[in-house]
Specification:
single chain, alpha+beta, Nuclear Transport Factor 2, Chain: A
């Protein structure tokens, strides 16, 4: 496994990803990159494939919303988020595999109405090739005050 990680680092054309020692760092870079791409920052344009596919699922119906920069802009408009979050593996530090095909999940929320969109971003060699979002309702409660249910 370490040999695979070292081989991937040697062949990785992405400078930021090639510096990552652990997979958690790769996840962080890709999650932050995903947000930067959706925001339309020119600094992230090199990490967006012109053929990247963007889609959004409403209930059980998915719809393609565009490709490349236009698709990213449309997804960003439909998300209309004020905050985002993502999780990073923190237990056993897994060696980084920076430029293998991988996905990262980012959750976007509109704090004004407690709705959100979970987007799975798929990368190949550090370049975004696909993003699929699905609408969610955000439910946040205290563990201490949650009612017990029978089940």
């Amino acid at each position: 496994m370490i040999a695979l990680a070292l081989a991937a680092m040697v062949m990785c054309p992405d400078a930021a990803l090639s510096k990552a020692a652990y997979q958690g760092e790769v996840t962080t870079i890709l999650a932050e990159r995903s947000v930067t791409i959706l925001r339309g920052d020119r600094s992230a344009q090199q990490f967006l494939s012109e053929d990247a596919e963007f889609s959004l699922v409403f209930g059980d119906v998915g719809a393609a919303i565009g490709r490349g920069r236009a698709g990213a802009d449309e997804l960003n408009k439909k998300i209309a988020a004020s905050t985002f979050e993502y999780g990073v593996w923190t237990s056993v530090p897994m060696p980084a595999q920076p430029c293998v095909r991988q996905t990262v999940e980012v959750r976007f929320f509109d704090e004004s109405n407690e709705t959100g969109v979970v987007v799975e971003f798929e990368y190949a060699n550090g370049v975004l090739i696909r993003a699929t979002g699905r609408n969610i309702a955000r439910v946040v409660r205290s563990v201490a005050t949650t009612e017990k249910t029978n089940g």
